[in-house]
Amino acid sequence: MIPMSQTLDTLRSRFDPQAASGVQEVFQFHFSDADDHYVVINDGTLDIQPGEHDDPSVSLSMSTDTLKGIISGEVNGMTAFMTGKLKATGNIMLATRLNEIFPSN
């Protein structure tokens, strides 16, 4: 199993500042098998923090394996959502931008 820190490093390495230009959002990640983290995107910058944010734009609940699959492109985010492997609350449409902001290639 890939450690959570490595998964977060993958998010950092795939971050596309141009795709995130003008974006000011907070993605909260609740993991069923790891500590919670949140990602703050502020006009092309990225900050990943442990814990819970007071007012996230969208909250995503999943296992770390589901996130790894979405990051690697092996799991389609919409399919994960439709099959219950990914639960989202808040600005759900924002979750669809994850692949754009963190492209897999």
**In one word, what is the shape?**
globular
Termini Cα gap: 22 Å
User: Any low-confidence stretches, pLDDT <50, length ≥5?
Assistant: none
How many β strands by DSSP?
5
Taking all Cα atoms into account, the compactness measure Rg is 12 Å
Major sheet strand order: 3-2-1-4-5
* Strand residues, percent: 25-35%
Provide a compact summary of the structure.
With 105 residues, the chain is of the alpha+beta class. It has helices spanning 4-14, 64-72, 77-82, 92-95, 98-101, and strands at 24-31, 37-42, 45-50, 58-62, 87-90. Strands 3-2-1-4-5 form a five-stranded mixed beta sheet.
Topology:
Blueprint: H1 4-14, E1 24-31, E2 37-42, E3 45-50, E4 58-62, H2 64-72, H3 77-82, E5 87-90, H4 92-95, H5 98-101
Parallel strand pairs: 1-4
Antiparallel strand pairs: 1-2, 2-3, 4-5
Helix pairs in contact: 1-2
How is this structure best described in words?
By secondary structure, the protein is an alpha+beta fold. The protein is 32% helix and 28% strand. It has 5 helices and 5 strands; from the N terminus they run αββββααβαα. Strands 3-2-1-4-5 form a 5-stranded mixed sheet. A hairpin with a 5-residue loop joins strand 1 (24-31) and strand 2 (37-42). Helix 1 (4-14) runs parallel beside helix 2. The longest helix is centred in the first third of the chain and has 11 residues, at 4-14. The radius of gyration is 12 Å and the shape is globular. The relative contact order is 0.22. The model has no long low-confidence stretch (mean pLDDT 91).
